[in-house]
Write a structure and sequence with these properties.
The structure is a homotetramer of 346-residue chains.
Chain A: E1 2-7, H1 12-22, E2 27-33, H2 42-45, H3 62-66, E3 71-74, H4 80-84, H5 87-90, E4 94-97, H6 107-114, E5 128-129, H7 132-141, E6 144-146, H8 150-164, E7 174-179, H9 194-197, E8 202-203, H10 211-223, E9 230-235, E10 242-249, H11 256-267, E11 273-275, E12 293-300, E13 305-312, H12 316-330
Parallel strand pairs in A: 1-2, 1-3, 3-4, 4-6, 5-6, 7-9, 11-12
Antiparallel strand pairs in A: 7-10, 8-9, 10-13, 12-13
Chain lengths: 346, 346, 346, 346
C-alpha cells in the first residue's frame, strides 16, 4: 500500500484527487490537510463524501506529516511548496506538486509571470515535469514531480507530435482555450459566482496568462528551439472540461493520412490519449470524469493551416488524474491503476 | 461471468447501464441493441465510449438474443416488453425491465395511467418490484424484475420508514419532485431543447403523472391500506438528479431523535442509503454519478407536519444503478459489486 | 420628472432597479449609492451599463442624499433602513424599501425570524405593504412602502383569491418554492459559486425561512384569521425566476370554471397578472425579464386538493419592477409606466 | 406606422424580431407567418407572448401577404426566399432577409458553401448587405436587404477598422468564435437537446462553416483584395451570445493609443458599438438582450500579433435587432428607434 497525504485537500483539485485515491486499490490516504477547514470533518466540507470519509481535516505541518506518508500531493497556492520544501522532507517522501512552483526551469521566467520570488530554486533542476506520456522514464525515477497545469496538458499533448516532427511552424501556433469554472478554484470571489459565470463567456488573461511560458517551454523542447505562442483562455459556463482549438501553419503540404500516421506513431499505444476518427471533433462531455485526452485535427488547404482540437477534464487529466498517474509511475504501479473509469454521459 | 444483454442501449438509461456493466468485474456484455442505431458502432452514438466499446448496435430480436445471455435488461418504451415477453424467453434468461410494464399489480390502473393495453398480464403477478432495500429476498429469487421509476425510488425510500411505522398520515403525503433533464430521455423534441430547458423551471404532469400510482401502490403496502398522494414533478435545468420534498402530517408528537431512530432502524445497514446529519439537507450534486440515496427530515412543530427531503441520481439509483444492484441480488453477487463509486464534486 | 436615488445600487436588485428606472421616461436618477464600490464608476461594476451610465457610485449618507431626491429606494441588508430612518428624512422624501424592515407589523415576529432588534418600530404602522394589486389605494397615499419579498409576492398572489373567497383551507397551505440564484445576491460566498449551484438543486431554510411570516401575515388578512403555512424554498441552477407550487385542501367541491371565475374576478383587469389557459402551467422562462406573474391551477379530485402554480422574475416583479410599480402609484404615474417590456425567449 | 410582416416568425430569430417590433412605437405587425404552426395562436407557441399577441400564425403565401405590408422580414431556411422572390413582390414591399440568400455576391461561392442552387440570382446585385454601421447609405435606399449572419456581424465589426486601415495582415486573420445554443434554431435535433449541449463545449464546422465566405467577402472589400481567413465556431452551453476572439499579425509596430484612435475614428459616434476601456474585455452577458457590439483589443508585443475580442447577442445585433435597425434606416426612422434597451444583468 502506498501511503498518501494531500495538502490542500479541500480545493476542487484536492477533492478530486481525494476521490480518485479513495478508489485506488493500492493507496491508503493517511491524512487530508486543509488550511481553511482544519479540525472539521472532511465530509462536512464535501458532503458527497459522507460515510465514505470519516476523517477530519488536519493542519499542514509538512515536516510532521511527511513522516506518515510515502507520497505527498500539494494542491496549494503558487509559492506555498517552494516556501517550505527542504531536502530533509524530500529525503523522506516523494512529492507531486499540483501548483506551478517547479514547472518552469528558468526562475526568472517563473518570477516574471507569477510575480512572486521563488523561495527554493535549488530544487527546480531536480523536479521532473510530470506530463506522463512524454516524460514517463524520468517520472518513474523522480522524487519531486511538477504536475502540469490543466490548460498546459491539453495544449501540449494536442500539438506535441506535430511540433516534434516539424510538421507545423511552432512560432505560428495560436491556442484558443476554453475552460469550465472549476479551474478557477473554490475561492469565494464575485467573478466566480453562479450569476456571473452562467449564461456568459469571456476571455481573460489575454496575452498574459501564466500557462503561456509553461507551454512555450515544453513545446520548445519538442521544437528544439525557443518558441513564442499566443494563448488565450476563456471561461465557459460549465463545471468541468477544457477544450483547446489550436491553429498553426503547416511546414509542407501533407495529407490527412500522413498527419494521422504521425499522431498514431506517438499515441496509438497510449491508454489515455484518444485520437478520434476523421472529422469527429472532441467535445468536453465525452471525456468528463475520465483521464482521457481526446484529440483531432483538420487540414485547411485554403489557408495552409492545420486546426487541432483537444479536450480533457481539467480536474482529472488536467490535475488529479494526472497526479495519480504520476504516482503510479513513481511507485511502480500499473500506470492506469485506479484511473480506468469511463466518461459518463450525459 | 454473468452474460448480459441490453435492449434499448442507446437511450440515456441504457447508456448509463452500459457504462456501469462495463466496470463490473463479473459481467460480460454480450450485445447492445438499439432500434434507432442498428448497425452503427456504439461508440459513434456515444463518443465517450470510443476505444472502450468496439461493438456495433444490433437489432432487437429478443428470442435470438436471449440464447446468448444470462440476463437481459430492457430500457425500452412503455409496452414494448409486455408485447413480446413469452414463457419461452423467461425460461431461458432473467429479465430486468427498466420500463413500467410490470411495476403495477392492478392491470386496470396500469392501463388507465399509461393509456395502453397490457399485452402480457400473465406475468404481472410473478414480476418482483425491484426496490432492492425493500424487496431484497424476493428479488434474489426472481426471473422477472420490474425496476422502479426514478421519481418513485426517491419518493418511496424517503418516506418508507415513517409510513411503515405509522408516524405519518400517508394520505396527507404531498410529494413535490424536481428532476434533471436526462429523465426525459434522448428523444428529439422541442420541449427538451437546450434553449427551452435552460434558465427555466416548470411543473408538468400536474395531478396526472404516471409515477403516482406506483408510489401509491408501494407506500400503500407499507401503510397497510390504499392511499392517495399528490405528486408533482418539475423539470430543472441540469443533466442529472432528482430531489423530492415531501410533506405529511405527523400522527403524534415526536422528537428529532425518535424519527432519526426510526430511519436508522431501517437504513443504518444499507450501503446505498445515507440519512444525513441533523439539519443537513440532501443536494443532488452530492449523489451525482453514484448509487446513493440521501435523505433527511425536519419536524415543523408550528404546523404539525414533517418535511422529508430525498435525493438520488436518476440515471444511477433511479435507473441503471438499481438495475445492476438487482442483477447482483439475482445472481448471488455481492449487492454493491460494481456500484461503489463515490459521487464526484463538482 | 421624478428624482430618484438608489441606496444599494450595486446588488442585483439595485442594479435591476437602476436598469428599469433608466428606461422610465419620467424618472431622473439623481445618484446611485454603494457601500462596496463608493467612488468607482457604476459602469465598472456593471459593465453592461458602459456608455449608458457615466456616474460614479456615491457613499450613502441618506440625510444628504434625501435633499436631492423625491424618492429613495433602499436595496439594502436587513436592518439597515430601520437603523437610520428618521421623521426628518421621511418628511422630505418618499421611501420604497426593498428590504424586510417594515414588512411585518408585529415587531416580535420580525425580531424572532430575522434575529435582529428593530431600531425604528415607530414607522412600522405607517409603512404600507407594497403588493400593488392588493394594496393599491394605500400605496398611492404612502410615504413609506415596504416592497414585498420575491418569494412572498409570488406565493401570495398565487393563492390570494382562493384564500380570500374561502375556497381553500388556508391552514392546509403548503408552498414549495424554487428560485434562481440571483435571489441570493451578489455577495461572495462559497455556496453561491458557479460550481456549487450549477448542476444541483437543494432545499434550504426548511421550516425556517424568513419569508414564511410575511406570507402568513398577508394571507392571514385575506383569510380573516391567523394562519400557519409550510414554506420551503429551493435553489435552482438558473439566474432568474421563481416558481411556486402550492397545495391546499378545497373547502368544497368546485369545478374548473368556478375557480377560474374567482381568479378572473380578481385578476382579469390586472396588467401584470396573467391567469393562463386551462392546463397550461407557468414556466419561469415565460416571464423572464418582465413584470408579469403567471398563475394557473389544477383541481385534483382524487385527493380533494387544488394545486396552484405561480411564476415571476424575482428581480422584476419580485423586487425592482414592483418597486417601480409602487413608485408609479405613489407619484400618480400610470401604474405600468416603464414596465411594459415583453418577456424575452429564449 | 410601418406595416410589417414576418415570415418564419416562430423560429428563435423570428420570435425575437416579433418581440422587438412589438415594442417599436412606429411599427404595426400585420401578420406573423409560420409553416410549422399555421392556424395556431402565436402565444401558444411562445407563451411569453400570452395576452401580448392575440393573433394566430398564418400560412406564408408571400404574394398575398405582400399586399398588406410595407416591409417583410424573412427569417426562413436558406434558399426559401430565393425560390419565391419576384420583381412583382419587390415592387410592392421592401424585404429584409435574415437568411443567407442574398448575402454573397458571387453565386458560385454561395452554391459551393450552401450546397443548393440559387433560384433567383438576378436579385443578388441589387441586394444590399445590411451591416448598418458600414453600409448605412445604401441600406437607406434599398428595396432588398441581406441581413448579415450572427457570427459574421460580430467577426466583421470587430476587425473592420484595422483591416480597412491596413494595420493588420488580413490573410493572417484567425477567428475563433463561440456561440450560445439559440444560434442553432428551434428545430428538434438530438444534438441540440439540453443534455447534449449542457456541460459541454465543442467546435463544429471546422474549416467548413458557411459564414466563412461572408466574412471573407466583406473584410475583403475593406482590405481591397481577396482574403482567406480561418473561422472556427464553437457551441457554448448558454442561450444567447456570441464571442469572437480574433488573432492577426500587425503590419507595423503600433501603440495601444494608436489602435484605440483607429477604432474611435470609426466607432466613437456609433450608438451600438462600444469600444471598451483598456484591458476590459467583452463578455456576452454585458450585451445580452441588447443591440450592442462590445469590442476591445490587446497588442502582444512578444508575438507581434494583436488579439481582438468582440461580443454581441446573436438574436439581437446578430439577427432581429440588426433587422429592425435596417428597417429604421430604410423607412427614415431614427436608426436606434425601438432598440435602446439596456442589457440586463444577470
Amino acid at each position: 500500500m502506498i501511503k498518501a497525504g494531500i495538502i490542500g485537500s479541500t480545493g476542487y483539485a484536492g477533492a478530486e484527487l481525494t476521490r480518485i485515491l479513495l478508489g485506488h486499490k493500492n493507496v491508503e490516504i493517511k491524512w487530508l490537510s486543509s488550511k481553511s477547514y482544519t479540525g472539521q470533518a472532511y465530509a462536512s466540507v464535501y458532503q458527497n463524501m459522507f460515510e465514505l470519509i470519516d476523517e477530519k481535516c488536519v493542519d499542514d505541518n509538512m515536516e510532521d506529516l511527511a513522516k506518515q506518508a510515502d507520497v505527498i500531493f500539494t494542491a496549494t497556492p503558487q509559492g506555498y511548496l517552494a516556501s517550505i520544501l527542504k531536502e530533509e522532507i524530500l529525503s523522506q517522501v516523494k512529492i507531486i506538486d499540483l501548483s506551478a512552483d517547479y514547472r518552469i526551469k528558468d526562475v526568472s521566467i517563473y518570477e516574471k509571470w507569477y510575480q512572486i520570488p521563488h523561495k527554493s530554486p535549488q530544487f527546480i533542476k531536480e523536479a521532473v515535469y510530470g506530463l506522463c506520456e512524454i516524460n514517463r522514464e524520468q517520472i518513474s525515477q523522480a522524487r519531486l514531480v511538477a504536475n502540469p497545469g490543466c490548460y498546459t496538458t491539453c495544449s501540449i499533448l494536442t500539438a506535441y507530435p506535430l511540433v516534434k516532427e516539424g510538421l507545423i511552424d511552432a512560432d505560428s501556433l495560436i491556442i484558443d482555450a476554453k475552460s469550465g469554472a472549476s479551474g478557477a478554484g473554490r475561492g469565494a470571489k464575485v467573478s466566480n459566482l453562479f450569476c456571473e459565470v452562467n449564461e456568459n463567456i469571456k476571455a481573460y488573461g489575454v496575452a498574459a496568462h501564466r500557462h503561456t511560458p509553461e507551454i512555450e517551454e515544453q513545446l520548445g523542447y519538442a521544437a528544439g528551439k525557443e518558441i513564442k505562442v499566443n494563448f488565450t483562455p476563456h471561461l465557459v459556463p460549465m463545471n468541468r472540461g477544457i477544450l483547446v482549438t489550436e491553429y498553426a501553419h503547416l511546414t509542407k503540404k501533407v495529407s490527412y493520412e500522413e498527419v494521422k500516421a504521425v499522431y498514431d506513431s506517438y499515441y496509438a499505444a497510449e491508454k489515455f490519449i484518444r485520437v478520434l476518427e476523421k472529422d469527429v471533433f472532441p467535445e468536453t462531455k465525452w471525456v468528463e470524469g475520465s483521464n482521457f485526452v481526446d484529440i483531432n485535427f483538420k487540414i485547411d488547404e485554403r489557408t495552409g493551416r492545420i486546426i487541432l482540437v483537444g479536450a480533457l477534464d481539467n480536474l482529472v487529466k488536467g490535475a488529479a488524474g494526472q497526479a495519480a498517474q504520476n504516482m503510479n509511475l513513481m511507485f511502480g504501479e500499473p500506470e492506469a491503476e485506479g484511473l480506468l473509469f469511463a466518461p459518463a454521459f450525459p
